Amino acid sequence: MIKLFYSNEMKESDILNREIQNNDEVEDIVADIINDVRANGDQALLDYCKKFDHADLDSLEASQEEIDDAYNSIDPEFIQTLKMARDNIEVFHRQQVRKNFVINDKEGIVLGQKVTPIEKVGLYVPGGTASYPSSVLMNAVPAKIAGVKEIVMTTPPNPDGSLPQAILAAAKVAGVTRIIKSGGAQAVAALAYGTETVPKVDKIVGPGNIFVATAKRRVYGIVDIDMIAGPSEILVIADGSCNPSYVAADLLSQAEHDKLATAVLITDSKVLAEKVQQELEVQIPQLLRSEIARTSIEQNGKIIVADSIQQAVEISNRIAPEHLEICVDDPFAVLNSIQNAGSIFLGKNVPEALGDYFAGPNHTLPTSGTARFSSPLSVDDFVKKSSFIYYTKDALSQVQERVVDFATREGLTGHAKSVSIRFES
Amino acid sequence: MIKLFYSNEMKESDILNREIQNNDEVEDIVADIINDVRANGDQALLDYCKKFDHADLDSLEASQEEIDDAYNSIDPEFIQTLKMARDNIEVFHRQQVRKNFVINDKEGIVLGQKVTPIEKVGLYVPGGTASYPSSVLMNAVPAKIAGVKEIVMTTPPNPDGSLPQAILAAAKVAGVTRIIKSGGAQAVAALAYGTETVPKVDKIVGPGNIFVATAKRRVYGIVDIDMIAGPSEILVIADGSCNPSYVAADLLSQAEHDKLATAVLITDSKVLAEKVQQELEVQIPQLLRSEIARTSIEQNGKIIVADSIQQAVEISNRIAPEHLEICVDDPFAVLNSIQNAGSIFLGKNVPEALGDYFAGPNHTLPTSGTARFSSPLSVDDFVKKSSFIYYTKDALSQVQERVVDFATREGLTGHAKSVSIRFES
């Protein structure tokens, strides 16, 4: 059964107990795989496909025919759902597009910032039960909107060498440009360093298991990465008027992801707290992934009874959850007080799952309290900015003495000279 | 003497040879320091001040009196320069401020993104010859504009327990809220985990030596960090009409930073190439830091003779330099072709040093080719975004079947249930 706390009896460690752990054994395995891919390229990828995916591939790359066949085999209603989800994601993310700016209000001076898309992006898609077409859309669509030219997807093949149809269809709907049949740390290494078939990219995005996450951390700096996602989290703030069965269902929608997932309810109603506690017991056995959900709820789940909704918000800001539901009658009144949260679901009829698949905002969100300083995946993650400066010689002459003095005080006479030399006769 | 290449004779490795190196010995030292600070807090910081800075401190924090005394002791002209630089930085960075957005064009649906400042930021300022007041301005001003409430600066004290006057004055001008006397990995650990005196922050920014950089990398995830800056770089694209002594001075303004710094000239003029080569030999001995500059120029410096300015730009895009000067008559004609560069200096009279101190754009820039995917430090680095979703029950009912189908196809029945339960009778 889920644990129940009262806010005035909680220790700091009851609220915040998420620490990132390293695993030395995994580090060593991943380091070897990366070195192998750097040394042996495609052949290493083919060998790992045999070893880990039990697939004997003729080609590392999915053909256009394979992609089209998968797309045509799928229920047209689901293709329609994918397209509607893509369109919603596009509408939301287009609002994130940034323009260049120029400042030209002083005689002879132009300053500005230009925004340029990252040229090539790698998109990792896990295999097995974590093979999610929604992830393909959520990662590829913002990259497309940013203007990324090449989006290279990698995902592990089935033993017969095929790829999951829904993943191929989502890739086609999202506009992925190439699809590589490779998974694990080896796929990340290929994207970071390039092989005969796999282009070296500038940034790698997408979720993955511990081997993928470790590989991404190791190649960070050679290429950029999106983030290292921790276990999924949901925090529900609910008042006494909420339906306990809805609240329980929403908590379970994250608990079913992973035994390490965290589901927390904070409420100002002891009655609701106890009803949700009971309702969880009713709903857990009904889930396909009931064992995972039970472990998550019993080990990491928490119901906190707070003095008020305001206190609930304060506790939530310290936890900085990935998903935050605000189940009260006027959720917009609370929105301004939310300081730290990845995605916020407003009102009693906005289950977090709506955002995972369909509404439009991204489902790749900061976990483990990183919403204190990190943001949902966005168009910003697929562009970079360059600043630029233009001064006429006259404009430079008016400030040259100050720049020369500043540089000289910092002991950098070369910096000073590069300015003063332009005014020597 | 600087090496001279012809573009058609260059190997790929002549152009790009920057790889990040780890240092296991430093890693171990830094890990011990971090553990010590976590265990012993202020006392560990005081002990390290004795050991490394030879300072026996009464208090880890600079008093308001110390700050005001330093400010009042400095040449008022330099205070004026600091204020003018701050104002220019403010004008530029204010253009980066992002607004919230809301999308409300479908009945019963509100989507949006809100932008919130990071609450607490730590700013590391190195000691010794790398103690730069310009860095204080470049890091603190964007944080202020973002709305960061607390900016905690740490910097190592002099042996008498004082701090450099220019650093204190710059901190006052920039609006730093607290100043801690501590340097090295121990200061980074204190900011990441907090001590009795030092508040635990959400993000750490600012340059530092290998111990500071290693500590930042280790605490990344617990807190955010800005970037791990590599050695400084300048790439100058110049045509035959340029003054070789200006070009040489500009190359040296980065070469004097660090023996590992890289200065590259790409020109379409063999005559200019040779004149700059000679001019470097004239100017190097005139520098205060001539030995550093000479090592940098001889080991990492490069002059590349290209077929055309267009080819020079293509090579530059592959190198993705930190600082890029475009010394041609119409630099704005070239600007659009620049894909990868931290900061771009347009025209023959815009030495890179102008941007280091005064013009307004940030001087904290992506190094080591990371301009392919990274950006100059900006207001964006001191905020985070949260998305939000509101649907009425009617709006949800219109899409519920698609969301339930999508979730079920991904094997996540708990996700499906959290939607469907709201429509069960």
UniProtKB/TrEMBL annotation, chains A, B:
Catalytic activity field: L-histidinol + 2 NAD(+) + H2O = L-histidine + 2 NADH + 3 H(+)
Does the record carry Transmembrane helix as a key word? no
Q: Which residues bind substrate?
A: 232, 254, 257, 323, 356, 410, 415
Give the Gene3D superfamilies listed for this entry. 1.20.5.1300, Nitrogenase molybdenum iron protein domain
Q: How is the cofactor bound, in the record's words?
A: Binds 1 zinc ion per subunit.
Q: So where's the catalytic machinery, residue-wise?
A: 322-323
Q: What's in the keyword line of the UniProt record? A: Amino-acid biosynthesis, Histidine biosynthesis, Metal-binding, NAD, Oxidoreductase, Zinc
MF annotations from Gene Ontology: histidinol dehydrogenase activity
According to UniProt, this protein's pathway is:
Amino-acid biosynthesis; L-histidine biosynthesis; L-histidine from 5-phospho-alpha-D-ribose 1-diphosphate: step 9/9
Cofactor dependence is on: Zn(2+)
UniProt enzyme class: oxidoreductase
Residues holding NAD(+)? 124, 186, 209
InterPro entries linked: Ald_DH/histidinol_DH (IPR016161), Histidinol_DH_CS (IPR001692), Histidinol_DH_monofunct (IPR022695), Hstdl_DH (IPR012131)
In this chain, Zn(2+) is annotated as bound at: 254, 257, 356, 415
What top-level branch of life does the organism fall under?
Bacteria
Please name the CDD domains in this protein's record. Histidinol_dh (cd06572)
Q: What does the record give as the function of this protein?
A: Catalyzes the sequential NAD-dependent oxidations of L-histidinol to L-histidinaldehyde and then to L-histidine.
Family label: Belongs to the histidinol dehydrogenase family.
Q: Which NCBIfam families match?
A: hisD
Name of the protein:
Histidinol dehydrogenase
Q: What is the lineage of its organism?
A: Bacteria, Bacillati, Bacillota, Clostridia, Eubacteriales
